[in-house]
Predict the structure.
Amino acid sequence: MEILKKSKRQEHPYIPELKELYRAGRCSRREFLQTATLLGMSLAAASTFLAACGPAAEEETPVATAAPTGGINRGGTMTVATRVQRLDHPARLSWIEGANAMRLVNEYLTFTDWDNITHPWLLDHWDVNETVDEWTLYLREGIKFNDGSDFMADDVIFSMQQWFDEAVGSSIAGLMSYLTPNNIEKIDDYTIKLHLSAPQIGVPEHLFHYPALIVPRTFEGDWVRQPVGTGPFTLSEYMESERAVFVRREDYWKMGEDGSPLPYLDQVTFLDLGEEEAARIAALQSGQVDNIFNPSADIWQAVKDLPGIGVYATSTAQTFVIRMRVDTEPFSDNRVRQALKKCIDRQAALDLAWFGEGALGHDAHIAPVHPAYCEKPIPAYDPEGARALLAEAGYPDGLTVDLFTQEARAEPAIAQSLAETARDGGFTINLNILPSASYWDMWTEVDLGITIWAHRPLGTMVPALAYTADEAGNPGAWNETRWVDEEYSELLHQAEQTVDVEARREIFCQMEDIQQERGSVGIAFWTNVWYVCHEKFQNVRAHPTNYDHFDNVWIQE
């Protein structure tokens, strides 16, 4: 059995109303599950309620999994083709590859699963008050770090203090701007209360933001030198840009579905094969690797029919953002921004860059998979309208601009598609396709670029990271476009504290309109993502944020 903290769970007062919304058909099954679990209802209780209501119509693409074909086996190694990046402080993470490495050793307080449902992880459960501005976190008892020390409230409080330390420089500080170290109260060794400066429904999902890993209170700032965590593996070897090796922890706290200790695998190896897709495909075909992290559409197309290879898909809020800095000319003029967005042929971009595997976007950074998403018409490709706007903005003969992006995944194809479709709209776009490391060194500084933004499970999360300012009015650390709109920000704050699904959808409708009409980004499409792995590995699936979870994976020979 898993180690659990025994404490009575309180039902949030909105849950009965949410149940009535579902019974009346005014919120979907997915919206009910996501909202109910955020408010502290267990997934088991929420699922029991849904089952009692009878079968629901299929409303979304099911998540594909590799189903067990026999008994659970112990032992073996999984080798993953992925970048082995330079790592130091978990709270400074800005790449999912690094988070996947650290996640083998360290864990989160919560876990947002493959269906975007958030569960307790290092937490047993949480309670939240009616106004969602006071959250009580109940930790699991009996868990130990891999150095033998007990996991306790002091470790969580220390980790949170690191998130808000300016010297650390974590993106969590912007995402969780409603919290400060002074507003974190230790109730006892296994209970913490968060006193928020503003109501926020997304706290449990924010606790799974990928830099929010829990470290011991003895952590000194360099994870490679001090890989101490509560997770299922321990770090054996870490050679930047080459390989990383993780070995099974014998005293991990969690039990598997067969009642035996996790993890089942003896070892996980990360192998850095660079950015050449052909090298990764060849390594998978030859058996050098078992798994390719975050495969591009080209890799998916190349391996999806290979014998012995499992390919699992899911819909996401991952997107490639065509982003314009509003503090520099010519993109300080909204007419120029609107003109460029009119030059996006969305279906052509999706077909060229992602083989049509995704959903079209409408230039607002809230996706169809998000609860309370507000559906809008997809803007048409309109080069004549673009030319008219450019002329109105003072560019009757057109405009020449430089676009920067990285040489990875779909970015070059999207850049090329935009350059071609924008030509008829009066834009001459000079392409600067850079090595990934070079682009990420300058991604917030370029006037025009294409940046991949990973999936987040709640529609308020990316707006809080990418389109807001700090208390002094300065754009946040990840606000690459410097676009800050007072009305948009106020609506975002309203959405973050609105529990009612229908009311939040009305707010999202307004936010999406504002970002379409005067925002700084073009969003052509939302991607499907794939998990590519040898079919002998069981209990693997595609996570919408490309998060790897190997604690419960085994090999079926």
Notes: The radius of gyration is 23 Å. Residues 315-528 form a domain with the Dipeptide-binding Protein; domain 3 fold (CATH 3.10.105.10). The chain has a mean pLDDT of 92.
